[in-house]
Specification:
The protein is built from 11 helices and 7 strands. Helix 8 crosses helix 9. The chain has 2 domains: 76 residues, no CATH class; 140 residues, Rossmann fold (3-Layer(aba) Sandwich), CATH 3.40.50. It is 45% helix and 13% strand. The relative contact order is 0.13. Helix 9 links the parallel strand 5 and strand 6.
Length: 254
């Protein structure tokens, strides 16, 4: 499995292949190594277009698998677990995120750190980063209320509503919370580094990416947070919006 996980990581780095094709290869051959080294005929047989195959071959040519072997060592040092789509720990609701025919569906792999592996009874509490006093107060109160009643509070560790929801959940006796991040390292925003450690002790932090990517203009890609939001919703039985504007990431998430 440790050798095979390299191919899961490589295929997730750039989602060129639909999830259903990846899973068909795995189910048929028991490994994704067979997919990574598949020839043109095999890929056509699994329904991929010639354009997708060309992009996939180009991506493989530019990819060094050694980088993923090095990443595995880093994950081991940081006690970060990898959960594949086919593992029993993978959140069951996340598999129903969208049709697995699409590449924006469930992640192939989740990076996970913390003590919580039970993603049942999950409720997402989300909202704006720039919230009013009402937003701060209600997010914390709702996080505490849901956690006190046995639910796991899911949010995105962002400033504002997310932070208050996590804190409220942690204030409850035996409260549990999950932070879904756009990337695992470094923790963003930096002022929530200590909060992320508290979450790990009573819950978990998860992401589909290990490290962030920054454009040449040194700005974070908004797409990373949109992608993160689909996981926040995807592992939750419902999404509770505390406060938001008429447009933006929260409305898109709903």
């Amino acid at each position: 499995m440790m050798e095979d996980i390299i191919y899961w990581l490589a295929l997730q780095q750039k989602r060129l292949l639909p999830t259903n094709v990846v899973l068909r290869f795995f189910n048929e051959y028991g490994t994704l190594e067979r997919l990574w080294y598949a020839n043109n005929y095999d890929l056509l047989k699994f329904g991929l277009s010639e354009q997708t195959i060309r992009l996939f071959f180009k991506f493989k040519k530019e990819t060094r698998l050694q980088n993923f072997e090095n990443l595995l060592e880093t994950l081991k040092e940081r006690n970060i677990r990898l959960i594949r789509y086919v593992d029993k720990e993978y959140p069951p609701l996340l598999k129903e995120l969208t049709s697995i025919e699409t590449i924006d569906g469930p992640p192939l792999v989740l990076f996970h750190k913390g003590v919580l592996l039970d993603f049942s009874k999950t409720i997402a509490v989300v909202g704006t980063r720039v919230c009013s006093l009402f937003g701060h107060t209600m997010a914390r109160r709702l996080g505490r209320y849901f956690a006190r009643n046995g639910y796991t509070v899911v949010s995105g560790l962002a400033r504002g509503v997310d932070t208050e929801a996590h804190c409220g959940a942690l204030e409850a006796p035996k409260g549990k919370t999950v932070a879904v991040l756009a990337w695992m390292s470094p923790i963003y925003p930096p002022e929530n580094i200590e909060l992320s450690k508290d979450i790990e002790r009573k819950g978990a932090i998860i992401s589909e990416q290990y490290s962030r990517s920054i454009s040449k203009f040194k700005r974070f890609s908004p797409g990373k947070f949109v992608a993160r939001n689909r996981i926040t919703s995807g592992i939750s039985y419902c999404v509770v919006v505390v406060e938001t504007g008429e447009t933006g990431g929260t409305v898109h998430q709903v």
